[in-house]
Every structure is written in structure tokens, then in C-alpha cells.
Write a structure and sequence with these properties.
The strands form two sheets. Strands 3, 4, 5, 6, 7 and 8 form a six-stranded mixed β-sheet that branches. The protein has a two-stranded parallel sheet with strand order 1-2. The protein is an alpha/beta fold and about 550 residues long. Helices cover about 45% and strands about 10% of the residues. The two termini are about 45 Å apart. The longest helix is centred in the first third of the chain and has 27 residues. Helix 16 links the parallel strand 6 and strand 7.
Amino acid sequence: TVGVPARRVGWLLATARAVARAGGSAEEVLWEVWAASGLGEEWQRLSRQGGPAGAGADRDLDAMVALFDAAANFVDRLPRSGPRVLVDHLVAQQIPGDTLAPKAPTGDTVRLLTAHAAKGLEWAVVAVAGVQEGSWPDLRRRGTLLGVEDLVDVAAGREPELLSAVAPVLDEERRLFYVACTRARRLLIVSGVAGEEDQPSRFLDELDPPPPDRPRPVTSVPRALSLPALVAELRAVVSDPKQVDTRRRAAAGELARLATAGVPGADPDSWWGLAGISDPRPLADPGEPVRVSPSALDRFVGCELRWLMEAVGARGSELAAQSVGTALHDVAAAAAAEGVDSADELGTRLEDALARLDLGGAWTTRRERARARDMLTTFLRWHRSSRSRYVLVDVEVPFTVEVPPESPDGHPAMVHGRVDRLERDADGRLVVVDLKTGRSKPAEGELARHPQLGAYQLAVAEGGFGAGESPGGGVLVNLGTSSERARTQEQVPLGDDLDPDWARGRVRDAAAGMGGEVFHATPGSACRICSARTSCPANPAGRQVTE
């Protein structure tokens, strides 16, 4: 597929060469290449559809017409000249570029400019458009990053908090509005829009006070002369049950004609709200295995809806933090695997890994680099102190175990993942250590039933790291919680728990839920940072997009 465009261009060049060798003029060569390219039909189709693609196709077609006109004029002047002479003629032409200097208008024209640029000028008719509350006046506080304005007030002996930050901004906006309205010699037109979210500016009432006993009259605006506006009006008529049937049928016929031509938005299959809200089928067929990772289990237990939304791509923009965490995990794994314990050497490796990442702007990069260095220092302190309790077995160990369901028609759980570190305690049991680089940590009351650590321990008990091994507990090492020492949180071994099968039950329940068809939203402390909260019915920020 990569060579298709090159072969197409080569074929067009061969066509041009064949016509030129047969004695064709430059205009005939150009026409044969144009006909062979097939771009005429494609650009005409895009032009009929409208929109940005249609506007681009219009410009391309205009350029081709101009090229054919230039070729025809050239052939009329020099009928015996070939295509090469035409190409040299076009390349030698010098076309002056646009200048940024203002030009004097010629004839009857309409000038579009800002209120600042209108100072000192006058016109017979002036239209001040878009006089909306929130944009005119725009009462957002002006200022600099370092708050120079407040420093000036303090230096002058004034208390900044006692001064109104809105009053001077409102006065400046009112003066600017006055400048715009006083540019008219004969007729002034000031317009605003009233809608559900947009309201006209208060300056309209100051300029032309409304009647005291009734609201200001509203003028209906006719439809814009554009294809998207026509489609919107036709859709509104078709969807309005109050319209007469003949009008709705006529609108439906026009929409069908536009849809056949490929106009965006005309086909009802592309309208929001017409498709079914959900598919009643479960995500997995009865008896089908369901893949469950320990991290996904943790998210699913916290909120089923969040797990589902993130599983289909509704994730927040945490790429910088995730990249730093991945780099730190790689350096920590190398330190354990190679026995490197030097802060300088590991710091160099970490800097090299961070240099290959895009951490955003300069401030973000400095912050994330400093945070990564602090976490490396914290990890090394924990790594040295933990040698008195555990013996390192391996790092970055993958595993996959199957947990059968309780019922024959249930979903087997394929628990898979990778543990950061496997340690062995004094009793010979395997202890799973998970390095956390996030800024938050689980509450102490949640640790006894922490799903991720429980899944790791279950993998040990099921032979995921070798037959005959028994779990010796789980440890969370929190490196990113702004502390010089790592904050460790430990989970007791499954065999020492009052309910040794609690992790197995969690995994089975999660497999049944992940393969099901209903997912519940569970409000909690993580809602404020949840990337799916704008689509969550249990959150005030959630909203329904279809009816």
C-alpha cells in the first residue's frame, strides 16, 4: 500500500510522455493527465458535500481551471512549443505575495475590525455584533503571572484585597463599547443572541433601555445560506411532530437527496440518539474465559462503570506521570537484576530514560524530573533496608493462572499480569512487592482486602510462580507520596486471614461481572479524579446525551 501513490504518479508521467511523443501540444498533454487522474469526479463530489473538504475541493478546481486557461493562452501564442516550455514558462513567473500593510478600500466595501482598531475612524453604517454577556463585557481578571498589579497596590499603600478587581475591568469594557458605538455617522446596529446558555450583554440595556413593563422584543434570525444550516433546518422539521405531514415528508425527501449526495449529517444513521442506548448482550458468552489483571480487578471492585469506560478508552491525560513511573520501574528492575546499588549510576540511567520521554513544557519537565529523582532516592532507601527481612527472588515476573468458576456455566478467570518484585521471607514463602509511583495510597482499612495484592497472592497459591509455593503476603511500596522514606503497606498472607478464600471470591465475582451486561456506578473518593465522571449518572458532572 505504501507504493500505490508512487505507482499512480509514475503511470500519469508515462501517460504525459506518450502524448508528448505523439506530437500533442502542452494543452493536450495537460488534459490527458487530468482525465487519467480521476480527480475531477472526486473533487466535484467533495464540492457538492460542502464543509471544509468541499471548500478545499472548490479551491483545487479553481486552480485547475486557472492552469488550463494559462495553458490555452500559452498554446495560442506558441503553438509549436511542447510541455517542457510550458513548465519553464510557469516556473519563471513571479507572483507577488500579500502584504501585511493596510490597504485603502476601493469602491463599496465592508471593513471587519476590532473595536480597538476602529479608534479615530468613522463610517456611515456600523454594526457591532456579538454583544454577549461574558464576552462583552469580558470580566476575566487581567494580570500577569507574578501579580505585578498587586505589588503596585502594596507599594502605593493600598490593600489589594480591599479593592474591587472587577470594577476597573468593567469600566474599561464600557469605554471600549462606547468607542465602537460612536463610529457610526448615520446608522448603528448592535446585536446580541438570547438562548439557553447565551444572554445579551448588559450594555444593550444601557444603550437602549427596554420597555419597563415587558421584556425586550426578540427578532427571529433567518437561516444562514450554508449547507450545514439547511441540513439542520430539514432535520428540525422532520423531527418535529407538530409539523404538518406534508412538510415533514418534503423535508425527509430533501434529506434523502442530500444523503445520497454524501452531504454530512443528512443520513439519519449518523444522528445522535437514534441508535440503541446499549446492547443487552453480555460482554462474554456463557463459559467463555474472562481475562482479569490485578490492576483491572482493583478498578473493577472500586467502580464497575469506571472499569468499563477506561477499558474502552475513556482515560485521562496522565501520560507524563505514567511515563515517569515506567522509567522508574525499569531502573528499579535493572538495579535488582544487576545488583547495582549506586545512586549516581542509577541516577544517570534514570536521566537517560527521562531524556527519551516527552514530559510536556519546561515547567512540567523540571517538575517530573525532580519527582523521579526523589522517588529513586526513596526506592534505594527501602531497597537497602528491606534486605534484613526478605531475600530477592526475581523482578518483573509475568504470570498467568486460571481460576475456575463456582458454577459450570460461569466464566473462568484468566488472571494474568506481572509483579514488580518477588521476595522470600524467613519462612520460605513468596512475598509480592508492588512499587507504586502515584501520589495517593490506599487507606489502612482497605489494605486487608486490597484486591490487587490479593490477586497477586492468589497467583502464588495457584502455582503462577512455581508449583508448591505458598503466599507470604503482599507489600505496597509507595514511592510517590512526598516522603523521604518509602511508606510501605503490608497485607497478611492469605493463609493467616480469617477468610483464606476471599481473594478467590473477589476474582470469581470480577470475572462474572466483567463478562456481564450490567455495570454499576459506585461513588467514592476517586470520583474527583475519574476520567469517566462526565458520563457517570452517579456524579453531578455526568449528563445524559440521548433520550
